[in-house]
Amino acid sequence: MNASPSALRNTLFSSAGIYTEYVLGMLTSIMIARHLGPDSFGLYSLVIWLVSVGMTMTNAGSSSAAIKFVAELRGGGQETLIRPLLAYLRRTQRTCLLLVLLAAGLLSALAGGKLVPGFNRLLLFGLLALTISLRAPYMFNISLGKGLENFRATATVALIATPLNLAMVAVAWWLDAPMGVFLAVYAISSMVFYGVSHYQTARLVPASSVTCLPPELKQRIVRHMRYVAVTVTVSFVAASDVEVLFLNLFASPAAAGQFKVAFQLATGAALLLPGVVGALMLPMMASALSRGMSLAGRRFVGATTYLTLLAAPLVAFGFVFAPAVIGLLYGASYAAAAPVFAICLFGGSLGTVSQAASSLLISADRQRSIMLLVIANAAVKFLLDVVLTLHFGLAGAVAACTIANVLTAVAVIALAMRVSRLQPDWPRLARIVAAASLAAAAAWPLRGLSTPLPTLVLGGATFALAYVLLTFALGCWSRGDIEHMQRLHQRVPAFPALVALLAWAGKRAGKDA
């Protein structure tokens, strides 16, 4: 996949931000989970989920509009319209925030005691109001940075705020603090994330004397936000760990804690490599579409292939080594989360692979189709969640989540194929899946070692080596990919074995799309 210097630079900064946020954020979550135990961690996770829902509803439509239209205005040489665009989007965001806070107040007053037993309802509302009011504009600022394609700014936010959050959690852990203190730390960290993100992005907006948006552009923005608001809200509630809510209501906080551990770890793992590319999809696709559907369609096909190339080994590795991963990170009290982690990793990777398709649809102004698709899939998921969780507890919640992820990914990719009139490279995708499966089989005998750390070190090395060699052997890379690797290799000291390997791989490579 050919990449310009700016795309490579954006990938580098995006990688730095995502890796920092994932690694330190996951370490923070592990400390909290191990300290609180499954029961209290299940209740803690429910409060955080409520904040996330409120944040998403507040930003529904405005965040994606910031990415799409800021990138579009920059690509079209209309930077003077960016400032009035942001003013309009922020007014909309404040209106949504008011409605969300009213809903949070009603929820805290009417159901706070049932949702979070033993927690003061007024304190619950105050926590929700404060954190939502800070986290929503923080996420909007991150979207602005992506729209400006200034991934240095978004990475800087993660590099500054995430370590501070970890330090505060470490102090609370050292003091053997109860759950309420960790929730207070979450509120304080929200202030930090908002402050840093505002400082990083406010200075990037081009100066402009224009105060009003052209009527045609404003009409497009309103149409985009109307559909995306519903789509984003419903899809987030459906795609997020809503099972934490149902498990707290229908099973137990301990089951919710087990699910949260597995789901969060799987979601984060899906962001490690595939998500680095996936995070760049929307601005890249919007820019490509401004030059024609043909280019955007080719990017959809190519990006889907490379996202699969990165996601497939994660799924295969998870199915083999999930018990060792959970045992090492969370301890024996979370052993029940191991199979849940493996299955959630499969579902999360499907969502990552379909990001190229969803970015194409959003850029092509197919928000109505996406909205109808998301609503239908969300209805199915909610029905499955209620029925299966009520009858089968944790196992039912996992089944509902997985079925919904499969249906959503298939539907989004099918719709993108219809819009672009192109299909993914199915034979190549099949070869990638085969390479990951064979690599998992090669590493399988090592899963039975006595302790988790040696299992993961030896098993991971074996799996990685087998997967790389199998992708070359099965022709998972195009000739252009191999030629690019050879050019990169020319810049470092030569290794004869690698030169021979790349030459052999070039003969087996598939044709460029």
Give a description of the structure.
- The protein has 513 residues and is an all-alpha fold.
- The protein folds into two domains: 1-239, no CATH class; 241-442, no CATH class.
- The model has no long low-confidence stretch (mean pLDDT 87).
- The protein has 19 helices and no strands.
Count every beta strand, where a strand is a DSSP E run of 2 or more residues: 0
Compute the CA-based radius of gyration.
Answer: 23 Å
Mean pLDDT: 87
N-to-C SSE series?
HHHHHHHHHHHHHHHHHHH
Percent helix, as a range, is over 70%
Shape: globular
Low-confidence stretches: none
User: How many domains, as an integer?
Assistant: 2
InterPro entries: Poly_Biosynth_Transport, Polysacc_synth
Protein name: Membrane protein involved in the export of O-antigen and teichoic acid
Subcellular location: Cell membrane
GO cellular component, one term: plasma membrane
Throw out a few tags for this protein.
single chain; 513 residues; mainly alpha; 2 domains
Task: Break the fold down into its secondary structure elements and pairings.
Blueprint: H1 5-59, H2 62-75, H3 82-115, H4 121-147, H5 151-174, H6 179-202, H7 215-239, H8 243-250, H9 253-272, H10 274-278, H11 281-289, H12 293-330, H13 337-353, H14 355-363, H15 367-420, H16 426-443, H17 452-473, H18 479-489, H19 496-508
